[in-house]
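Title: Request for sanity check on Ubiquitin carboxyl-terminal hydrolase 47 prediction

Description:
We are preparing a figure and want to confirm that the structure record we downloaded matches what your pipeline produces today. Could someone re-run it with the sequence below and paste the raw structure tokens into this thread? We only need the token string, no images.
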Amino acid sequence: FAMFQIHHADVFSVLDLQIQNAAEEPRVLCIIQDITSAGYVKATFDLAWGNTPDMAPLDHSSTMSLSDSSFEPGGKKNFLQLTDKDGEQPQIASDEAGTADSSGLDDVSKERFIGPLARDSTAGCSGDYSSPSYSYSSILNKSETGYVGLVNQAMTCYLNSLLQTLFMTPEFRNALYNWEFEETEEDPVTSIPHQLQRLFVLLQTTKKRAIETTDVTRSFGWDSSEAWQQHDVQELCRVMFDALEQKWKQTEQADLINQLYQGKLKDYVRCLECGYESWRVDTYLDIPLVIRPFGASQAYGSVEEALQAFIQPETLDGPNQYYCERCNKKCDARKGLRFLHFPYLLTLQLKRFDFDYTTMHRIKLNDRMTFPEELDMSPFIDVEDEKSPQTESCTDSGAENEGSCHSDQMSNDFSTDDCVDEGICLDSTGSTERVLKPKSLPTFELFSVMVHSGSAAGGHYYACIKSFSDGQWYSFNDQHVSKITQEDIRKTYGGSSGSRGYYSSAFASSTNAYMLIYRLKDPSRNAKYLVAEDFPEHIKSLVLREKESEEQEKRQREIERNTCKIKLFCMHPVKMMTESKLEVHKDKTLKEATEMAYKMMELEGVASLDCCRLVKYDEFHEYLERSYEGEEDTPMGLLLGGIKSSYMFDLLLETRKPEQVFQPYKPGEVMVKVHVVDLKSETIATPISVRAYLNQTITEFKQLIAQAAGLSAETMRVVLERCYNDLRLLYVPNKTLKAEGFFRSNKVFVESSESTDHQVAFTESLLWKLLDRHGNTIRLLVLLPEQSPGTLANRTLCQKVGGDSGVPFEGSTGNRKSVEVIEESTDKLKNLSQQQQGSSTSDSQKSSDASDFEHIESPTQEADSNASLCVAADNRELENRIRATAGGSSGASSDPDNHFASEERSDSEVNNDRSTSSVDSDILSSSHSSDTLCNADSGPIQLANGLDSHSITSSRRSKAHEGKKETWDTAEEDSGTDSEYDDNGKSKAEAQYLYFRAEPCSQDDSSSDAQKCLVVHVDKRITLAAFKLNLEPYVGVASTQFKVFRVYANNQEFESVRLNETLSSFSDDNKITIRLGRALKKGEYRVKVYQLLVNEPEPCKFLVDTVFAKGMTVRQSKEELLPQLKEQCKLDLSIDSVRLRKKTWKNPGTVFLDYHVYEEDISISSNWEVFLEVLNEPEKMKSMSQLAILTRRWSPTTMKLGPFQEVILESSSVEELKEKLSEMSNIPLENLEFAKGRGTFPCDISVLEIHQDLDWNPKVSTLNVWPLYICDDGAVVFYRASTEEPMALSDEERSELMKKESSRLLKTGHRVSYSPRKEKALKIYLDGGPVKDSGQD
């Protein structure tokens, strides 16, 4: 579809209409559907009305306005179809079969062309690069220039620029075409010349606007990560040429690179006394030209000026004198370079990237440097008039001239070189040097400018290239190719209109030329591009293969555009519910689509094709919307409502048994799952599906159920579960299902016995109790603590096993069989919108702003030796204990066959029935934990989401909540946890008895063989306190002596500590770990204690977890803490040699004094952390009015920082601080300077930056004002003597120190501001890829 939004005054080339006074006309939105397969040439097609086909097509020659032509204004959509005219295809707008070397469309074609034109011809060349946005459709049609762009993989613009330059070089392209790939000798995927050949063929023959370069980079041995590495285009050129030379060995193209790009120069030293000259010949592939000489304030203004500087000799005198072998002494000499031979293709690299030794950063020089379109190189040839009386010839080209030129070590003998065509040649005969004058002046014409836009840290490359076919300049900017002018080329000179001062580069444009490529003007050698008719036979074959591949791709895209993709479900007789995606062509019939789905779901041999059908299905509500009887021959595109990116419904492949008949599903019907309840056996049967209409009455609905389930309609009670835990008895006979709240998919419970249960109120009936228990019971896996031999004698059993530990169900007496619920495999999770409206009482409905869960880490062993512990000896004892518990109980668990498999519930349901879903900010951990999460010892545990193994599928709702974590609540409550006992000392768990039954789990239920496991069926409205009380017989200790941890995905554990909250956030098969250890009491807080080591590389070290209580003094907490430190950390400390202080992240804060009381003087909360600091001298902090400052001396003369020393101030006076520092360091007060440290403790900073980067000696009189803001203990202050000067460092010393500081600061996790971005070397792998070191990270 093409969408046009036009004004009446705009020229709409399709209709050739023009209306004046457009400002007063409304806009018209026109949508045109192209149903042809050809082009867009005027007067060769019709525009017909899409929504009113009876109207005549638009008249091309009409002069009527759009309004008069039945177009509707005001934002309304006008649908048109572009169709064939008189049964003939529209004519093609341009000749797409032309080669890439054509100059684009002719003038006539341009006038006839209909469609969006290319962007402005100067795009990408007139200023800094801005990345354009490209759609996939924009690269399907060739640019009007006739040339094809290259897709940027990520940061491969440098590669695209070089490839386009090589493609536009006739000699290189033609030579590459003449090379023939032998597939028997090499893999085409790893052959660099072959992939370049394919790319060039596509660039010349494809009809696309841009093509990919992934095959070329794959032949380089690069993976996808290389696409995100930007490199230097000149570096790539050298590496690629080297790779091609290696690949072309023993072929006709073996010396191609040297023939085209290699030149020669002479590196000489001439004695100024005797004229003796020593020289050697080097080769080069490019000439590096300096933009700005080292230490100079001005840059060279032109390429000619830079070339002259390149060959300008330097005089070796003074200490740099040259030792002359003829004079046998050191003499003044002249050293320099002379060009001997220029290559056919001359490459000039403008060295715009440099290193600033002042800032120690890489920089880009944006100075202006002009370059001519024709370059005369004759002034730079070796034509010196003075002749040396005797020279020494040296043809060793194995070394480079100080790294400035490329040396070709493959060629060592140049004495026989006869390439006089290039303009100059050196011929050595005997011991004399003779220069031949060139036949003609060596004039080169510019044809490629590779431009860099950006800085030294990164940027964008594109190429401006002149076509040798028509002399037109083009901008090749990744996907986009456009015509440009000479003015655009001049804009790449760089610089600004101002003077060429030292800082001019900083204010110049960052878009400028980086590499220039010239070609020698020689009619005898200048080649033309090969046209398709002159291609070698192997290239013609390659063109045919690529065209066929392109046509196949086009056909595949056409198929994709006409393919309906919809989610498909299947109730497989063996595999249960399976899910897949059905991709079917829009013209395929329903019968053919059913056959495809039948094969896709692997039903062959399980069910016959005649026993399968596709029906419209809503997986979210599990609703069968309709079936398609009599529409077997209807196309799927029509049946599904067209081709869409996504559908609001799904398809279900329904199966039946041979003796069954498919039930028709009509639109408007609702689906009802009916569970039959047996009050005598207290069971709920597998649901049966019934379809009803919303306008049916309850009486009619009962008769429908009676017919389907074989029950009596007269005594039937129907209970609708409208949403989770919302049970409604349907007792009004004439009320419709719609009025009762039925929706697409519904669930009802029916009971049709003649008992007296129906005479009591519904909420008091046995039916309600069964359904209530059925809806609220969940299945939990509880891992009990492992046995710890040797400690059994120290454990006490809080309750006799087999005594009164049983908990009766809902306060009832006598044995009662639990309800056995067998859910059908198709019974799925509830709707996300369902909300619990349960009527439970007591703590289960209380609103709470705190959470059950605290972030913890699983320890390798329990270390709470103070707990009174008691566990079973082994699994056998555990089973005996469970049986004893069940035997002595009057609860529902006395029946050995009793099993209660609860209804599947999603996380959304169990979360919604909580009055408030919030989390305590208390972060708990065992004694050997740290700040991070870790996995429990058991194997991987999937986060329970309410799904059983027979679930219909992984519901969208449950997936949305999988792995969900609670959010931290920062609100502090009156205590860190809730007490298990009320004010009278009575257990809160005794207030209400809810269903609880435990049994040992099988090996299938437990993923860990080492730990004993319980399967617990429990009413999730039970409080945590009651749940722990019920677990006492199985754990073997009192509920106050063990902790409950909920296990989430990836074995992350959170401790549940809110004893008055229910288990409503839990769902089926959630996992719980029980760990031994004292649980917190009311007013207690678990605290992490860290040791503060101010002068250590890692100043923060975790010690222990401990418990502080409300009302406790700091000294009392230290008294309880020290024995724990001695036992667990082997730290034997005295109470007066340690202090506690506030910890904020890694920063030490307020010092706590011994007489301070928690909650009164010190705010304490959950998730609390404190520092313990060992003192080397008696405590000097006596009052809260004092201020403890951590100071550190900086010595510029030694470039070192001293250790931390604490200074205690009586006030916030700057003068007092300076006096204390002067007294401590012996620096005179008038020479002392100080500065506040930055960042988190220990405020690390590089010694290369500290002297100038900090705000030294702020002009303030107090510490608590800007810019210091020192208001609390623990601030870091650096100080120095103003008379000390920084140490003088050489470049080598500075570089070495920078590396050391970088390593030090990276280890401590602090930012290194001067650290450059790590660069990756550019490599091309000739064997297909890098060799991976298995031991390398």
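Thanks, this matches our download. The chain has 22 helices and 54 strands.
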